[in-house]
Amino acid sequence: MDAFTTLTGIVAPLDRVNVDTDQIIPKQYLKTIKRTGLREGLFSDWRYASDGNPQDGFVLNQPRYDGASLLLARDNFGCGSSREHAPWALLDYGFRCVIAPSFADIFFNNCFKNGMLPVVLTNAEVDQLFKEVEPQPGYQLSVDLAAQTVTTPGGTSFHFAVDPFRKDCLLNGLDEIGLTLQKEADITAYEQRRKNEAPWLFPDLG
């Protein structure tokens, strides 16, 4: 997966609490196991009317938020079912970071496994960001994972906590497969040793 070190980008504010995974990516888009092609389904029940036309009032349909890479959200973001398609859809749309006062546990964990950074700030800090983004088209935040800071255009920095192991994995672009492959030489040596010790366990299928 792609490493996450620093990110400076446009912020899209989603001012709703308890956004569940069925709202992030509705069930009709779950037929695929690919991580791409899900951007059209992201928040589709809110983005599109019943006739398929964009809903003018929804945040992602507003031109000022085109190209947004940070999503600003409210409490309990990602609640509901455990579908991994939710972070896939956000990533496919272009979001690499979600900032909220709290996240559902499974969604929170799935973000790290897929190269997305979920940042927990206090309600007061999130309130301040919502107040700043609305009157400022093109409003950007800078996220520094190594320093664990979110910095506003005015220079105010907020510190966030992150598990050291998850932080290291994101900084180095390592998912669970990548972590395993770091031990590839040891795995290969073990397999060869077992073949020598117990060749009957490894029949020649050729």
Number of continuous helical runs: 8
Return the CATH class: Alpha Beta
Shape: globular
* Strand order of the biggest β-sheet: 4-3-2-1-5-6-7
Keyword list:
Aconitase, domain 4, 32% helix, seven-stranded mixed sheet, globular, alpha/beta, single chain
Write a structural description:
- The chain is α/β, with parallel strands linked by helices.
- The chain has a single domain (6-201), classed as Aconitase, domain 4 (Alpha-Beta Barrel).
- It has eight helices and seven strands.
- The model has no long low-confidence stretch (mean pLDDT 91).
Set down the secondary structure blueprint.
Layout: E1 6-13, H1 21-24, H2 44-47, E2 70-72, H3 85-93, E3 97-100, H4 105-113, E4 117-120, H5 123-133, E5 140-144, E6 149-151, E7 157-159, H6 164-172, H7 176-181, H8 184-197
Parallel strand pairs: 1-2, 2-3, 3-4
Antiparallel strand pairs: 1-5, 5-6, 6-7
Short description:
The chain contains 8 helices and 7 strands. By secondary structure, the protein is of the alpha/beta class.
